Amino acid sequence: MTATRLESRAIVRLAAKDESEDVRVFLQGLVTNDVSGELPVYAALLSAQGKAMFDFLVWPGEEGAVLLDCEAEYADDLVKRLSLYRLRRKIAIERDESIAVHWSKIPTEGGSPDPRLPALGHRWLAPVSDGETADELYLAHRLGQGVPEGRAELGDILWLETNAVELNGVSFEKGCYIGQENTARMNWRNKVNRRLVVVLLDQSDEKRRKAAYPELRFAVDHLRVSDLDPTTLPEWQAAAIRE
Fold first, then answer.
1. Cα 143 to chain center, whole Å?
2. How many CA atoms lie within 13 A of 105 on its CB side?
3. In angstroms, what CA-CA distances link 41 with 27, 34, 57, 164, 171?
4. Fewest beta carbons less than 10 Å away: which of 38, 108, 150, 184?
């Protein structure tokens, strides 16, 4: 049986503790994307300056709950950050150890195309079970598609500079959220001067490097758009650069 579990991912569950609460409304006022409609969607929780703090996929849960498919290493930090905004609202925010994130490079029954980019494969949530993990295969495939992810690669970068528009991680039509002002201003003024780009490690600029994967010979650099050659980029990113 092919390994599909992503051990590097975890689930954070948000659930109403009172029928008067609406978890989606709570999350809608915090994250970059519209979570009021069909899920899953890709979104992030930003700093007030519009820089990436946590990125995740938002899934529907049972009985109105919402599930965040996030980095396992920082899941507890995400819980703490979301809890700061809960105030006195009757919403439970906690890590759910009973559910695992699964991934397949090819379409799989019960899976959903990754909302960032169909070429990233299919994902689904299922009860935790023993077995081999697919983390190494997923990492290699993700980097091969030129898609950055997680705090090591995205952390402290302005959200639009992470390719959030091209990867369907932001809505400019929803209401306010944390970091919206700078994010919207960059979009209106077309001022995305830098981009996160997956490059070959031997072509990486160490001064602009966010993360390196020597075993895969890839790196993620934060580079000026004016220095990028569209012919060296994946088509989804090259199209944005050409525009």
1. 14
2. 13
3. 13, 8, 6, 12, 11
4. 38
* Superfamily for domain range 9-242: Probable tRNA modification gtpase trme; domain 1 (3.30.1360.120)
Q: Of the ranges 152-166, 181-195, 204-218, which one carries the lowest mean pLDDT score? A: 181-195
Q: Which pTM value belongs to this model? A: 0.96
Give whole-number Cα distances, 212 to 87, 132, 134, in Å. Answer: 39, 24, 20
Taking alpha carbons only, the member of 155, 142, 135 closest to residue 234 is 142
- Gyration radius of the chain's alpha carbons: 18
According to DSSP, residue 130 is labeled: -
Give the DSSP letter of residue 41: E
pLDDT tier at 1 (50, 70, 90 boundaries)?
Answer: low
**For residues 196 and 157, is the Cβ–Cβ distance under 8 A?**
yes
Average pLDDT, the chain: 96
pLDDT digits (tens, 9 = 90+) for 161-203: 999 999 999 999 998 999 999 999 999 998 899 999 999 999 9
Q: Which residue has the tokens 């909302």?
A: 115
As given in the structure block, the two tokens for residue 166 are 């091209």
